[in-house]
Design a protein that fits this description.
The chain is an all-alpha fold and 235 residues long. It has 2 domains: 13-37 and 152-222, Endonuclease Iii, domain 2 (Orthogonal Bundle), CATH 1.10.1670; 46-145, Endonuclease III, domain 1, CATH 1.10.340. 53% of the residues lie in helices and 0% in strands. It contains 12 helices and no strands. The longest helix has 19 residues, at 99-117. The radius of gyration is 19 Å and the shape is elongated. The two termini are 32 Å apart. Mean pLDDT is 91; it is low at 1-18.
């Protein structure tokens, strides 16, 4: 299959398009580095993963994990969330910032699950995205990590690595997702093997972005992908 052409948001994609990391080799290297990659949001069921992922917007997984034990103890299911006292819930999630907004979002989420899905988390993209606070990325996280689908959840780390590897020049998540999937397919990466599973590959890109390929000071000298990566945009 021929390699797809990159599209750019900012007109700077011409040089980047010429330097593209081999998707199959990158996926295999990341699988070796992070064989047991999993979401770092603590959860025991689909609802807890959904709530934690909604809360993770504009904060870190570490901080979310600090507030969810109390949250899940006091409001363990959709019915409890739907009937939660907003002030009490706000106080629990306040350390994440925007406490009142997050609390209202969770109450709305509980009500949506209760009214539309009998309190259960649905395994459907459209059904999830219709719930308060749930967008494409959150739905992909839940459907991939809990229900076992091969879906790419594009966050800031995945976007950054995709651009540095030459897989995309987009900044918007949908553009990154489309480009990344197209390049993996062109390089013969199959979603049914572990290295090519989009859910696990996305988690590995996130871990690598947090630990090595950081935004401000990427540790290229310590990176196992150094010989594969064109380092697009890295000084």
């Amino acid at each position: 299959m021929s390699r797809p052409v990159l599209h750019t948001d900012d007109g700077e994609g011409a040089a980047a398009a010429a330097a593209v990391a081999d998707g199959a080799r990158v996926a295999a290297a990341l699988e070796e580095l992070y064989p047991e990659a999993r979401t770092e949001l603590d959860h025991r069921n689909a609802l807890e993963l959904l709530v934690a992922t909604v809360l993770s917007a504009q904060t870190t997984d570490v901080r979310v994990n600090e507030v969810t034990p109390e949250l899940f103890t006091r409001w363990p299911d959709a019915k409890a969330l739907a009937g939660a006292d907003e002030a009490a819930l706000t106080e629990v999630v306040r350390p994440l910032g925007m406490g009142a907004t997050r609390a209202r979002r969770l109450i709305g989420l509980g009500r949506g699950l209760l009214e539309r899905h009998d309190g259960e988390v649905p395994d459907g993209q459209a059904a999830l995205e219709q719930l308060p606070g749930v967008g494409r990325k959150t739905a992909h996280v839940v459907r991939g990590a809990w229900f076992g689908h091969s879906l790419l959840a594009v966050d800031t780390h995945v976007g950054r690595l995709a651009r540095r590897l030459g897989w995309s020049t987009h900044n918007d998540p949908r553009g990154v997702e489309k480009d990344l999937v197209a390049h993996l397919e062109a390089d013969g990466v199959g979603e049914h093997d572990d290295a090519g599973n989009l859910t696990r590959l996305g988690l590995r890109l996130i871990l690598h972005g947090r630990r090595v390929c950081t935004a401000r000071a990427p540790r290229c000298g310590d990176c196992a992908l150094l010989e594969l990566c064109p380092r697009v945009g890295v000084a």
